[in-house]
Amino acid sequence: MKGIVFDILRDMVEESYGLEGWNSILEKSGSNGLYISTESYKDDELFSLVGAASEITGIAVNDLVFKFGEYMVSQFYSRFPIFFDRSKGLIDFLLSIDRIVHLEVRKLYPDANLPSFNYQKGDDSSLTMIYRSERKLCRLAEGLISGSAKFFNQTYTMNHDPCMHHGADACHLKIQLTGEANGI
Ligand code: HEM
Ligand SMILES: [Zn+2]
Question: Does 68 fall in a domain?
Fold first, then answer.
């Protein structure tokens, strides 16, 4: 994972638990906490930070990863507002992730390990994202989708079946918009 992901995790922890909280997570996971946003670090290092954060806060890893995804969206907005501003709404934005957003990210960080998404478009209020990555971070994807929905002020329900964690070769994340702010 890129250092930028570690920076965002640190910001999230610091907001709720201060520098002290972050330092105890570093200590517990045996990390020196020195990250440069464009450099790559082992995925295991990120996973062990999240594991330590879960032990310290008592929040389950799955819930932390989801929250982290939501938090990432707000950080991405302050770093890359253009990707959000060019979108008409949640579905439009999600459709742009594979072909535009992650493509641009790859130009910025050529050795980034980005997932691949295929799409099945329903009507204007539904979309299935088919997620493949050897990291199986579908819970992070769920948090990123939730954070994006909040950004666009839209609500949705999600169906996550099949899932790679249950033996499938890809996760199907089906998003159905609900409520008044319907449409792309
Ligand atoms: C402006 C918005 C976004 C930006 C700038 C962005 C950028 C990035 C970056 C920098 C990484 C880390 C790559 C690495 O460390 O090697 C990443 C990973 C990832 N992104 Fe995005 N992303 C955005 C939105 C989204 C959204 C909305 C989704 C989900 C629907 C998503 C799904 C993922 C997933 C699941 C990963 C983890 C890597 C993996 O699964 O293998 N991203 N993204
Ligand atoms: Zn899954």
Answer: no
pTM of the full structure: 0.95
Q: How far is the CA of 26 from the centre of ligand 1 (A)?
A: 23
89 lines ligand 1 (CB under 6 A): no
Q: Give the chain's domain count.
A: 2
The span from the CA of 141 to the CA of 173, in Å, is: 9
Map tokens 């330092």 to a residue: 23
Please indicate, yes or no, if residue 73 is contained in any of the structural domains: no
- Three-class DSSP category at 105: helix
Nearest bound ligand to CA 166?
2
Give the residue among 82, 79, 71 at the shortest CA–CA distance from 16.
71
State the CATH number of the domain containing residue 133.
Answer: 3.90.1520.10
- Mutation test residue for ligand 1: of 37, 65, 102, 111, the one with most atoms within 8 Å of CB: 102
- Asked whether residue 92 falls in the same domain as residue 50, the answer is no
Pocket flag, ligand 1, residue 115 (CB < 6 Å)? yes
94-116: pLDDT as tens digits? 999 999 999 999 999 999 999 99
Residue 9 belongs to what domain range? 3-59
